[in-house]
Amino acid sequence: MVRVENMAEGGYPDVEGMLDGTWFGLELKAVARPALSGPMHLKVRDSQVRFAGKRLRARGLYWFFIQIGSGHRRKLYLVPGGYAQELQEGLTEREIADLSRLPTTKPTQSQVVRRAVQLP
User: Fold this and answer.
1) Given pLDDT bands bounded at 50, 70 and 90, which one contains residue 56?
2) What is the tally of structural domains in the chain?
3) Containing structural domain, residue 41
């Protein structure tokens, strides 16, 4: 895996990697847990929604790796890039959890990578 900063192409994922010959991209998002239950505002840009769509149409694997909260209360979710528009519009933590493809909200790096190279 490698962290990418691409100023030339908007929406390019923050991290890209390859495992067993399969490429994947991760868009990293972090947000504080709101005091009241309601939609999360993840700041998904239009360029990220477009890039996710292009990557998925090319049969690539593109994910949003989302951290909600911090410290020992943080939870991690891996949401397929096909939900970019919904994430941009705002989803509750429960809705994000329902979309997540991870077996736990406290995954190891290995669990994230192994899941990221599988189809959603």
Assistant:
1) confident
2) 1
3) 2-116
Q: What angle do CA 55, 83, 105 make, to 5 degrees?
A: 110
Residue 44 is part of a domain; what is its CATH number? 3.40.1350.10
Q: Residue 117, exposed/middle/buried by CB under 10 A (0-12, 13-18, 19+)?
A: middle
Q: Distance between CA atoms of 74 and 115, rounded to whole angstroms?
A: 20
* 120 pLDDT tier (thresholds 50, 70, 90): confident
DSSP 8-state class, residue 76:
E
Closest CA to 12 of 59, 57, 66, 50: 50
